[in-house]
Design goal:
- With 937 residues, the chain is mostly beta strands.
- It is built from ten helices and 53 strands.
- It has a 22-stranded antiparallel barrel. It has a six-stranded mixed beta sheet with strand order 1-4-11-12-7-8. A four-stranded mixed beta sheet has the order 50-53-51-52.
- α2 runs antiparallel to α9.
- The longest helix has 22 residues.
- It is globular and about 95 Å long.
- The N terminus is likely disordered.
Length: 937
């Protein structure tokens, strides 16, 4: 279930009926102020302390279970983390049809895709994004490792974030704001964590088949094999998808070819080794191969003074534009063969050693390779030779790069568990394995009023190294005084050292292989630049757990992104290099569960303000008569906004979810040497308003038939600017999408799920890419999003996890067992087989124990975990500890200080019901809470 700081379960809620479409940053400030006042007064009034316990219980009954997230590199419940987060479970990804990064943006406030001039897609979060040749503002991690920095002749990009990544995942977490004092890479906008399913100690798996529109055929599956119980565990997973494109070529060069198709093969193997109870090693081998036809580029406008008109004349250009508009956006004519091909593969190894109860060491090492011909595209979307990127002659890949990374991390607790600390070091090295190269065919002005088609060969590569040391602490202030109960301080620091060395060789075969950027002819066209960049970054914040279900927090963070070089420009030119950029982010937030007149809800609200300087921005310039994509520094900007997520359950079986963001982002000062003064321009790829609403209804059918639910999601984003100029055609209009889905789970008691879905149900026409060529080549070309897609899924579960859950369906908790005389007061909490998470009934018992312990001022509780006799002694010892830790975590959430809780693990010892080894006995799967005083449960 998706959440955000909202919930880990279903989210929804209402943000009020105010009109938040501000027209200026100042109006945005007024909104932030008023909503902030609401957050600090209204919520605190809505959740009086004396009702906190009752609300915790009702939240559980409402099905708002918590997601465990790793946003601070340790397992925590999402609602207790003082960061704006959106999290998705494996079930969410399936139920919400999230199979690509574009799908993910529907449900996450502030997140959209930066489809920058067609040179690859990157995440944009709170206005922070990637620029050509520069680092990512939002870093994507897979299994705690930053995804590979792929390279093209244009620059670097983060590969592997598209379709083919979203299968067999445990969860996806989107963290807003600068991250770095706890993570391998430094960021300015946030991090997106993709966590694969980890091998477990049971034989189980699933297979899923999807069929749908445009001949969509997809198979996804996984199998989990415990080779040696609890010691050697293996999981294999894969995803194969093929779908025809929804844009057809009707031209004379490539008649019938389809664009925007899907054709990928993903594979993943995970191996867990546990030679001892205190050491674990996880190795993941992954591969994603994609061989597609590229985007369907459509001509959307012409510049009367541009190269197209100068080449074929205004009447011919206007006639072609009219013909394209008559055909519509699903037909085009290309003049160059398009390729969108990529192969990402690698190996990750995560070793963890629990040195002592309160000290752990983790090492995360990875080697990744990216091979691609990903941007071989006809950028103008016409049959005329205007701007075409061509593949290398006789070469299967236009670029290939490799990346090594290693992160060593130390973490632990001290001062009676009041202090939690993390220290780490990070090293990343990336380099091309072949010289990235492609050809460009373009119209070039060789004399006033005279244009000539020429061929340009581009070779560019970048070698980069990033090193960092970081640390972060979190201190429970109640260790200083009981008056400070519920107040915690967090502080972190990082220092990053970056090195970059870039090489470039650009020459023009049309003119005898002359060098484009220096005097001479090929092979003497090489340009090279290198340099070091470094900066400190930090985070600091306070959080206040006002009640067990209400968290307030304020934090500040500093983000940094390395500078670099533009080797498509002459050395010492105005664009030959660009500086690092910096952002200082201030965030105020509240996370809360509440109930009004029987309506249960969970809400998260975050307000943020960013000071942004030396902003790196991609622009296309004419240099020596050739078009050149370059990165330059805009001067400064302020960004401020609101992020809201919530879940409301008005009646049992009905959920309504809401995710909303408002962002005011304009350049305060931006002077471009060629384009002029662009101060006041809206940020590209930042919609001012973005909202999604999901309604889900469970239908009343007999329990033996399974569970049947219907859901609908409507999402809307306001207009965004698609480039960094005042181009009259540079704005992508706002649009809304409607997705529908029906899920029937456990069909007639079988381990079988059947689903039907429709995406873009109203067949909305909307633009996703706006190629910024209007002022350079006189054309405005566009790429449109997916049309209506209708599909069906069949998912079969097998193995122990796929069987009818014996404990959940047949087990009735035993009658209350009288405590032994030596243990006057105790509670028993029971668990499902092989599980350590609390069931709703278990949560109620733990809450009651905490409530009664508080009423009699208990100063010590013993929390003892037990298991049945299935599995090895070592495995059951760990499982019993996890169960005890789950109970202890809930007791802490209910207000019991961790210093008063003693955790004991007994594994298979001290059985409540004596059994032989290997017997599943529900009453033995328990945790016992013992304290002196208070009533007995």
């Amino acid at each position: 279930m998706s959440t955000s700081g909202v919930a880990a379960g279903r989210k929804a809620g209402f943000f009020g009926s105010h009109d938040i479409s501000a027209h200026s940053v100042s109006q945005g400030s007024a909104i932030l102020t008023s909503v902030g006042a609401l957050a600090l007064t209204g919520f605190s009034m809505a959740i009086p302390a004396h009702t906190a316990h009752a609300q915790a219980e009702t939240s559980a009954e409402a099905g708002m279970e918590e997601i465990v997230v790793t946003a601070r590199r340790r397992e925590e419940k999402l609602q207790s983390v003082p960061i704006s987060i959106t999290a998705f479970t494996a079930a969410d990804l399936t139920e919400k049809n999230i199979t690509s990064a574009q799908d993910l943006t529907v449900f996450v406030p502030s997140l959209i895709m930066n489809n920058n001039a067609g040179f690859g897609s990157g995440f944009s979060l709170r206005g922070q994004t990637a620029s050509l040749g520069a680092g990512a503002g939002v870093v994507a991690y897979f299994a705690e490792v930053p995804l590979v920095n792929g390279q093209t002749g244009i620059g670097t990009f983060q590969g592997g974030t598209g379709p083919g990544l979203f299968y067999d995942l445990e969860n996806v977490q989107v963290l807003n704001g600068p991250q770095g004092t706890l993570f391998g890479r430094n960021t300015t906008g946030g991090a997106i964590l993709f966590t694969p399913q980890k091998p477990t100690n049971v034989f189980e798996g699933y297979g899923q088949v999807t069929v749908g529109s445009y001949n969509w055929r997809e198979f996804e599956g996984a199998v989990n094999v415990p080779i040696v119980s609890d010691k050697v565990l293996l999981r294999l997973a894969g995803d194969v998808s093929m779908r025809d494109g929804y844009t057809k070529d009707v031209g004379k060069f490539f008649p019938g070819k389809d664009y925007s198709n899907r054709d990928y093969w993903g594979f993943r193997a995970s191996l867990v080794l546990r030679p001892t109870d205190d050491f674990e090693n996880v190795t993941i081998i992954s591969s994603l191969y994609r061989d597609e036809h590229g985007p369907g580029v459509i001509l959307g406008g012409i510049n009367p003074t541009g190269a197209l008109v100068a080449t074929i004349g205004l009447p011919a250009a206007s006639a072609y534009l009219a013909a394209q508009q008559a055909r519509g956006p699903r037909e085009t004519e290309a003049s160059a063969f398009q390729i969108d091909k990529e192969w990402d593969y690698g190996i990750t190894d995560i070793a963890r050693w629990d040195v002592a109860d309160n000290v752990s060491i983790k090492n995360i090492a990875a080697y990744q390779v990216d091979k691609n011909s990903a941007f071989i595209t006809d950028f103008d979307g016409t049959p005329f030779l205007i701007q075409d990127v061509l593949p290398r002659s006789g070469e299967p890949w236009s670029a290939a790069s490799q990346q090594y990374s290693d992160e060593l991390q130390f973490s632990g607790k001290a001062l009676g568990d009041k202090l939690q600390w993390t220290l780490g070091g990070y090293l990343e090295y990336s380099s091309p394995t072949t010289f990235p190269e492609f050809d460009v065919a373009e119209i070039t002005q060789v004399a006033p009023g005279f244009f000539l088609p020429i061929l340009v060969k581009v070779q560019q590569g970048s070698t980069q190294r990033s090193q960092a040391a970081y640390g972060q602490i979190s201190y429970d202030m109640s260790g200083l005084s009981p008056v400070l109960e519920g107040l915690k301080f967090t502080g972190g620091y990082r220092y990053t050292w970056d090195y970059r060395s870039d090489d470039s060789s650009i020459y023009i075969p049309t003119f005898g292989n002359i060098c484009a950027l220096k005097a001479g002819v090929f092979p003497n066209c090489l340009l090279a630049s290198s340099g070091n960049f470094h900066a400190p970054t930090w985070t600091a914040g306070m959080e206040y757990q006002m009640t067990p279900v209400t968290l307030f927090y304020v934090k500040g963070s500093r983000g940094y992104k390395s500078g670099g070089f533009n080797l498509s420009t002459p050395r010492q030119s105005a664009f030959s290099s660009f500086k690092p950029e910096y952002v200082t982010d201030i965030e105020l937030g509240v996370k809360s569960d509440w109930e009004i007149m029987g309506v249960k809800a969970r809400t998260d609200l975050a307000l943020f303000h960013d000071d942004y300087s030396n902003i790196q921005r991609s622009v296309t310039q004419i240099i020596n008569g050739l078009s050149a994509p370059v990165t330059e520094n805009a001067a400064s900007a302020e960004i401020q906004g609101i992020e809201f997520q919530g879940t409301v359950i008005p009646v049992a079986g009905t959920e309504i979810s809401l995710a909303y963001s408002f962002i005011a982002a304009r350049y305060e000062r931006f002077l471009d040497p060629l384009a002029g003064d662009m101060s006041g321009l809206e940020f590209p790829f930042v919609p001012k308003n973005k909202i999604s609403v999901t309604a889900r209804q469970e239908l009343p059918i007999p329990g033996e038939w399974g569970k049947l639910s219907l859901s609908a999601t409507y999402s809307f984003q306001s207009h965004v600017r698609g480039d960094n100029t005042f181009s009259p055609t540079g704005v992508i209009e706002g649009y809304g999408l409607l997705n529908l889905r029906a899920d029937w789970k456990g069909v007639y008691g079988l381990p079988l799920d059947v689903s039907m879905f429709v995406t873009n149900a109203t067949d909305e026409l909307y633009v996703t890419k706006n190629f910024g060529l209007y002022n350079v080549f006189g054309v405005q070309s566009l790429e449109y999003g997916e049309p209506r897609m209708i599909g069906a899924q069949l998912r079969y579960h097998f193995g122990e996890e796929g069987e009818a859950p014996e404990a959940a369906t047949t087990y009735v908790p035993p009658p209350v067992i009288a405590p032994a005389p030596a243990v006057p007061k105790s509670y028993l909490v029971f668990f499902d087989f092989n599980k350590s998470d609390l069931t709703p009934q278990a949560l109620t018992i733990v809450d009651q124990a905490a409530h009664n312990a508080g009423s009699v001022h208990v100063t010590k509780l013993e929390v003892t975990g037990h298991t049945d006799t299935v599995g090895s002694d070592a495995y059951n010892m760990r499982l019993s500890r996890r169960r005890a830790e789950s109970v202890a975590a809930q007791l802490e959430k209910d207000g019991i200080p961790s210093s008063e809780i003693e955790i004991i693990a007994k594994g298979k010892r001290d059985l409540l019901v004596p059994t032989a080894d290997g017997v599943r006995e529900p009453q033995n799967r328990r945790v016992q809470i013992v304290y002196e005083g208070g009533p007995t449960s």
